[in-house]
Design goal:
By secondary structure, the chain is an alpha/beta fold. It is built from 16 helices and 16 strands. The chain has two domains: 152 residues, Rossmann fold (3-Layer(aba) Sandwich), CATH 3.40.50.1100; 215 residues, Rossmann fold (3-Layer(aba) Sandwich), CATH 3.40.50.1100. Strands 5-6-16-11-12-15 form a six-stranded mixed β-sheet, with helices on both faces. The chain has a four-stranded parallel β-sheet with strand order 9-8-7-10, with helices on both faces. Strands 1-2 form a two-stranded antiparallel sheet.
């Protein structure tokens, strides 16, 4: 498949390039001190992570510990209510720890083990990456520091408790809005101090090269499984696939299984309360090109050109930028990025819970809401949604803010 001079038959060989760029997005905008650390991770990924021993161990872990493959489920009752379009979900909520995050965390921490590191550092917003990283650290017997904004700590108390039970040190970040962006800032600062003995395991397809590529590759298992399962279940490819996008790890892995297929692909950003700056986190819709956290992509900026305040009902999506590969796929027209607001998200959260017995993460409910919209718009066909996580972590917040509907 050729789109805007990009050949998707050879896409993964060419993107990113050797310097970490997807077109003009990506790269590694980092201090001289961290360049050596990034080079060490790149070298390890291209050697150790491609070895038979590493791949065999990761496959064993995914099968015996994570419980992969996760299934694809047909949303029969919801589909029948909406019309003729059939909705399906890839059940990453059934991956161990309840979300897709463990897919790259086990890969990153296994790599850290092979590199001889003793400690891992991570950031988290909704807490799912933090829980997954704490789980991986416990599995491999490593120290673990998780940086988390104080606002997210209040919203995600169950996940904070899980991280602590798993033995992680949860470091509260109180700067700025005290959410995901500030947690990333703090984690990078800590890594700059400790990189010789630890590795920073970034929680999405963001950050300096090689992280956008590495996280996507570890998440590719989601798209690979989903494609095979859907064809086996139905005999054909879905007409469309949908995933939520904050930094974009679940979407990058899910999309990667279908990029070279005649399938419409939709990434869903959080519109939050509306289009005013500070009321949403839809960087691909409303942002402009800029550099933050060591990579060039599309970002929401304030009047001084700095990362703008953002908001989303979903803690895992309130980030003022998106992964460089998403910006590239948007520009060449392979993926359409759209938005869903808070109210549509909560409606979808309850619809999936009541009609299918599946309580989704608020992040994933954005994708479900968009899938519902597509089903109402199309006359026929099928839509496969990446249900990137379960909603246990969101119960207290949902009940307190929205009540039981």
């Amino acid at each position: 498949m050729l789109i805007n001079n990009v050949d998707f038959d050879t896409y993964f060989k060419n993107y990113p390039d050797e310097n970490g760029y997807f077109g003009r997005y990506g790269g590694a905008y980092i201090s001289e001190e961290l360049k050596a650390a990034m080079q060490e991770i790149r070298d390890a990924y291209f050697t150790i992570a491609q070895s038979r021993q590493f791949i065999a161990e990761l496959r064993r872990i995914r099968k015996e510990f994570q419980g992969r493959p996760t299934p694809v489920s047909h949303l029969e009752r919801l589909s029948n209510k909406l019309g003729n379009v059939q909705l399906y979900v890839k059940r990453e909520d059934l991956n161990h720890t309840g979300a897709h995050k463990l897919n790259h965390c086990m890969g990153e921490v296994l790599l850290a083990k092979y590199m001889g590191k003793k400690k891992v550092i991570a950031e988290t917003g909704a807490g799912q990456h933090g829980v997954a990283m704490a789980t991986a650290a416990a599995y491999f017997g490593m120290e673990c520091d998780i940086y988390m904004g104080s606002e997210d700590i209040k919203k995600q108390a169950p996940n904070v408790a899980r991280m602590k039970i798993l033995g992680a040190n949860v470091v509260e970040v109180t700067d700025g809005q005290a959410t995901l962006k500030e947690a990333v800032d703090a984690a990078f600062a800590a890594y700059a101090r400790e990189y010789k003995n630890c590795i920073y395991c970034i929680g999405s397809v963001v950050g300096p090269h090689p992280f956008p590529m590495m996280v996507r590759d570890f998440q590719h298992v989601v798209g690979e499984e989903a494609r095979e399962q859907f064809v086996d279940m139905t005999g054909h490819l879905p007409d469309a696939i949908v995933a939520c996008v904050g930094g974009g790890s679940n979407a990058a892995g899910f999309f990667s299984g279908f990029l070279n297929d005649p399938v419409d692909i939709y990434g869903v950003e959080p519109l939050g309360r509306g289009t005013a700056l500070g009321d949403h986190a839809a960087s691909l819709q409303y942002g402009t090109e800029g550099v933050m956290h060591g990579f060039n992509s599309v970002m929401l900026k304030d009047e001084n050109g700095e990362p703008a305040p953002v908001y989303s009902v979903a803690s895992g999506l309130d980030y003022p930028s998106s992964g460089p590969e998403h910006a590239f796929l948007r520009d060449i027209g392979r993926v359409k990025y759209d938005v869903i607001n808070d109210e549509e998200t909560i409606d979808a959260f309850y619809a999936l819970s009541r009609m299918e017995g599946i309580i989704p993460a608020i992040e994933s409910a954005h994708a479900v809401a968009y899938g519902i919209k597509l089903a109402q718009k199309l006359d026929k066909g099928s839509v496969l949604i990446n249900l990137s996580g379960r909603g246990d972590k969101d119960m207290d917040y949902i009940i307190e803010k929205y009540g039981i509907r």
